[in-house]
Amino acid sequence: MPHVEQTIAFLDIMKLVPFPIRLSPYTRYTSADSDAFITASANFTEKQRTIVSTDFLNFVFNLDDWTDEFDATEMEGLQEAVMNTMRYPENFHSDTVTARITRSMLKTNGPNCKECSIDGMESFLRALAQQATDRDLSVIPDLDAYIALRRETSGCKSAFTLIEYAANIDLPNEVFEDPVFQDMMAAANDNISWSNDLFSYNREQSRKDPHNLVAIMMYTHEMGKQAAIEHVGDMCNKAVERFLTIRAKLPSWGPEIDAQVKTYIQGLQDWMRGRAEWSFMTERYFGKDAPVIRKGLQVQLMPVVGTN
């Protein structure tokens, strides 16, 4: 009997995110040698902020990749090193590119944004440590526990601070502490992290990694692969609908703060659309087949690699 390759079909995630694509005018400056733009200046231009933001995101992506094979002890050491550099730069000095990026960003952040950046990174690393512990103990969380953990392992809380940093705004705590605002951020986070789980599922199923919403739905709801894919796609769509509904319910904090909130909301929308677009512009998830997969929305499943 001939071998038949398994395939899965995606929903068109792009059509489910009703926001236009917006490209920074400084994109051409974000490159491997952009560290040359990182200075001790306390008055960064918009171009410099864009470059530092991009480099910081590359650092977060690398962290995510590095820790895929880390155990809980290794994660503890990494968390301590990164957080000491961010919280106590005067005592824990490092001359790595990553440290210079972090110092430059924190030095030119507003005070509230600075605290959010540090807290966001700490929650991200703490969640990665929990993921490593679950991996060590072969723990598969239930759906609610996974959703809560995924909002942290997505790195969105840290990445969203770049909206303020790049736009040179500094939202007050009263905005971030507002429950409606928090729900809106959670909806954006869910859309980004769940769609990422769709795009990364093929790679993760090949190495038996259960930290993926598709795998969780298959395990907790006894779904087949395609049914789980479609269900997660529907969840992504509902997250966008939830975002739009909550956005309309935001209170007013006065003209000056409302203008900053409007900028922040635009950033969340750019994140939702841009993250999905980026997933098909790189080879991270689909290799050189990304353009074909985006057009046909069909993915051939990779063989499962045995773990020793």
TrEMBL record:
The keyword Chaperone does not apply. Its EC number is 4.2.3.-. It comes from the Eukaryota. GO terms for molecular function: metal ion binding; terpene synthase activity. Its cofactor is Mg(2+). It holds the Pfam family Terpene_syn_C_2. Keywords: Lyase, Magnesium, Metal-binding. GO terms for biological process: isoprenoid biosynthetic process. SUPFAM superfamilies: Terpenoid synthases. It is an enzyme of class 4 (lyase). Belongs to the terpene synthase family. This is Terpene synthase. It comes from Laetiporus sulphureus 93-53. The lineage of its organism: Eukaryota, Fungi, Dikarya, Basidiomycota, Agaricomycotina.
